[in-house]
Amino acid sequence: MTKTQLDGWSSEASEEPSSTGLPTHPEVTGETGIITDLSTASTMVTVLVEEDTDPEDFAALIAGAASSTRILGLDELHVIAPARHLPRLAVAASEIADELPETFQFCEAETCEHQHPDDSTVLTADSVLGLGRKLSAS
After folding, report:
1. Rounded distance, CA 132 to CA 24, Å?
2. 4 lies in some domain
């Protein structure tokens, strides 16, 4: 498990990464990195919002994060952001509440008290912002 921080993520799954660059987990076999047991795989998408993210982009960011979660076939979305961004992110999320995954939550960066799994899908705000902008344009 990894403590939530904006400045980095670490993996405790293994000391040495495999030659594919993927961490070695018990459910990953061989050099292919193919997961053979999905029962223990995380279903969480974690989106990291940086301090300098423009609040005008929050609606597109939340829409892109929700769509990314659906596209990946996952069912949990956690948005980790600095405290000053949380109120405006919440307003943006309320505007598309019916599109958010059932398990959705915000976490305050650096003070989040629960842990996020090492194998959660971590996306940056920039990576979901483009999708959100395309969705709002259509």
Report:
1. 33
2. no
